[in-house]
From TrEMBL:
GO CC, any one term: nucleus
Alphabetical UniProt keywords: Nucleus
The family this protein is said to belong to: Belongs to the GCF family.
Pfam annotation, one family: GCFC
Name by which UniProt lists this protein: GCFC2 factor
UniProt lineage: Eukaryota, Metazoa, Chordata, Craniata, Vertebrata
GO MF annotations in UniProt: DNA binding
Nucleus among keywords: yes
KW Nucleus (keyword) present: yes
Amino acid sequence: DNSCEFITKYRSCRRQVRECSGEADHHEGLSSDDELTPTEVTEFQKSKDNVLEDSRKIFEDVHADFCDIRKILLKFQEWKEKFPDSYCDAYISFCLPKLLNPLIRVQLINWNPLEQNFTEMEEMPWFRAIEEFGDAKNISET
């Protein structure tokens, strides 16, 4: 979130400089972030590193069974197999997206599809775990 604020402030500052200098040939949306100074790039990278470091600490005091999506889904799968009526009555299919949302968001903090060597979302461990859970759910329903 800090990086978005930084970029927004930077762009508004550049806009004001252009307006004061009378630069009329600028077309909004065509500017490049390559115009960042080395100091600004360093500041952005430092801010990004701080966010990533903080994100690593989010689940450090959580038991491993409750911060791993695959393990969480396995517990729900066991519940469904052992107590299908209770599982159905609890509307688990509606609860899972809200339950898994924070775990997935933490894993996506550093994901950038605009980078050259980014990981496809379908290849991420959390995506595969949910996909396998969905396949197991469909198999048990048939």
